[in-house]
Amino acid sequence: LLGAACTTTDRVEEACRPFDRRRSGLVMGEGAGLVVLEEESHALKRGAKIYAEVAGYASSLDAYQVTAPPADGAGAVASMVGALVDSNLHPADIDYINAHGTSTKLNDKAETLAIKEVFKQHAYQLVVSSSKSVFGHLLAASGGPEFVFTVMSVYTDEIHPTVNLTQPDPKCDLNYAPGKKVSYKGLASPGKPVRAALSNSFGFGGQNSSIIVKKVDQRL
Fold first, then answer.
1. Which residues form a coiled coil (predicted)?
2. pLDDT mean across residues, the chain
3. Residue 13 burial by Cβ neighbours in a 10 Å radius (0-12, 13-18, 19+)
4. What is the tally of structural domains in the chain?
């Protein structure tokens, strides 16, 4: 863990820079996120406000190294492909990815390669952002708030930015929404709203998980 920690200490609020060429490691944060899951029929019966539908999920274990992912992102590829299969969705159905995005040299490059491998040319049509750029790395708790942000992106058609990304790494060349919120709210174009989104959460020791949520009023 200490080996993956950020070595920049001058301005802590700017130290976490996912996908930036100056990134130097993860920055610890503190927080949590919780959601309530229930069957659609039960939620409708009680008149609950439904934010999104869990379409599918998958996990993998690459067991490559304790703190480093395989350079080609093979474990991340497996979990994202599995989530798409479980969701019965195609890569082109995904509009947003909430990246694991740790601000480490190895993860950000490997995750970018994995996204390209899974989504091919559609990878360049996606918006990708890292919640860790906002609140840091919460370790085992990271997946909770990241899932909440992913759900709210589908619900509101707004995507939070990757903050502190001002000098993009040439090897991380996707649309990471640098420094500015992406909003499709109120737009008439049917292709613009966030119809479905995928959230990646990867852990030490080669644990990888991906979950997909989609709008409740649209069957893709």
1. none
2. 90
3. exposed
4. 1
